[in-house]
Amino acid sequence: QEVLGEDKLAAILKERELKIYWGTATTGKPHVAYFVPMSKIADFLKAGCEVTILFADLHAYLDNMKAPWELLELRTRYYENVIKAMLESIGVPLEKLKFVRGTDYQLSKEYTLDVYRLSSVVTQHDAKKAGAEVVKQVEHPLLSGLLYPGLQALDEEYLKVDAQFGGVDQRKIFTFAEKYLPSLGYAKRVHLMNPMVPGLTGSKMSSSEEESKIDLLDRKEDVKKKLKKAFCEPGNVENNGILSFIKHVLFPLKSEFVVLREEKWGGNKTYTAYEALEKDFAEQVVHPGDLKNSVEVALNKLLDPIREKFNSPELKKLTNAAYPNPSKAKPAEKGTKNSELENVVPSRLDIRVGKVISVEKHPDADSLYIEKIDVGEPELRTVVSGLVQFVPREQLQDRLVVLLCNLKPQKMRGVESQGMVLCASSDGEPRQVEPLDPPAGCCAGERVYVEGYEGGEPDDELKPKKKVFEKLQADFRVSEDCVAQWKQRNFLTKLGRVSCKSLKGGSIS
């Protein structure tokens, strides 16, 4: 998408082949958007470049401790195996690549001294700005996050490369490196950037947002389920993760894309130029359902060799050890009930942003509303709630709310309720109630998660006898700045914090 230092690049190529590196912090599991840099790495190798892949294990720890230190070694091994499997899946010869771990050299005396030298010239403002789109942003940032951009800049010198390749989201770190490396007497490097593929929910595909991405080891039925729910509005080519994946992954790899259709809709059609496909989709010649089905088939062809490789007992064991499932209960000890040991964590709750489509009074209860709430394609939930005595009906119409979606549906005065609108409420008298507000700009269907519990799949349905929601809800509170929290950890969407209007210190139910 962008190149910084093109003149220098041209000058190097007049004398010799380019030395380039691509790095990845070993935190959340790599997902299908990683095929974008992988396909470009294939291009670099075909062009004769010397390519180094860096597994940045120390960076992973510095990024707000996304990966616990004790898991770093396991996750680095997982990344190495899965990325090699990806490259093999698209036909990249591994013998031409060099693989390096950050801790192989980042703990050396020389590197450590350069970290201190760099910290003596870098301002706090520049360090924070450089990491704004890469390092996890929190209200009270750790010092480690400010060190992160400096380490990434120094990697260019210690890996002895001419250029660094990364996503366009790394641009601020790249310009930081260009500014500060010369202050240590090191050369300014070339920087090349690939575009970021939007996730299935329309924003950047992220390892920490389960609903936005397809994992490389997802089963075929999971791929189908996630693609079915993906944002792909008829005729809309903006923030369309399905189209972007075709453009940036499938077309570069295959030079064509086949839309699979039944004969009654015109039969299969092969596109040899992405622009033609986008034009047909914009004009609604291509239906979203056909597009999703076609991507599903093409994607599974890429994923099958990776799944097969990771089906071995050794790699299954590695995967489970590197990414332990937080929602699984520990084995019960003798004389101890399972329910006492069950791991009750917020990621088990399927909380989403919803948009109220219509509101009406319950036919058999003056104290209840019946609300139709859109929670993303293609779902519409009927929710019965008691907001009638606290919130006027007209204030709910077209409003964005926060909805718990995986409670077992239950009938309330004869009407089945398929979710719960989460609200803040005051503890005093008279009682006040305010529906929680997602950040401005959110869309129906976006996942709401608790800070630090971004990973993990929610339960398909919460079992009433287990009282998972009730146990978690006991620690739901509103902070003094009106932010919804669980044990002082914020409720978040990809656009920021969930809050309420005014009920400081209130409870949430």
UniProtKB/TrEMBL annotation:
NCBIfam families: PRK08560.1 (NF006330), tyrS (TIGR00234). SUPFAM superfamilies: Nucleic acid-binding proteins (SSF50249), Nucleotidylyl transferase (SSF52374). The keyword DNA damage does not apply. Residues 345-449 form the TRNA-binding domain. Belongs to the class-I aminoacyl-tRNA synthetase family. InterPro entries: aa-tRNA-synth_Ic, NA-bd_OB-fold, Rossmann-like_a/b/a_fold, tRNA-bd_dom, Tyr-tRNA-ligase, Tyrosine-tRNA_ligase_regulator. Residues 330-340 have a biased composition (Basic and acidic residues). Residues 320-340 are annotated as: Disordered. It comes from the Eukaryota. GO terms for molecular function: ATP binding; tRNA binding; tyrosine-tRNA ligase activity. It is found in: Cytoplasm; Nucleus. It comes from Steatornis caripensis (Oilbird). This is Tyrosine--tRNA ligase. Its EC number is 6.1.1.1. Its main location: cytoplasm. GO terms for cellular component: cytoplasm; nucleus. It catalyses: tRNA(Tyr) + L-tyrosine + ATP = L-tyrosyl-tRNA(Tyr) + AMP + diphosphate + H(+). Pfam families: tRNA-synt_1b (PF00579), tRNA_bind (PF01588). Keywords: Aminoacyl-tRNA synthetase, ATP-binding, Cytoplasm, Ligase, Nucleotide-binding, Nucleus, Protein biosynthesis, RNA-binding, tRNA-binding. The gene is Yars.
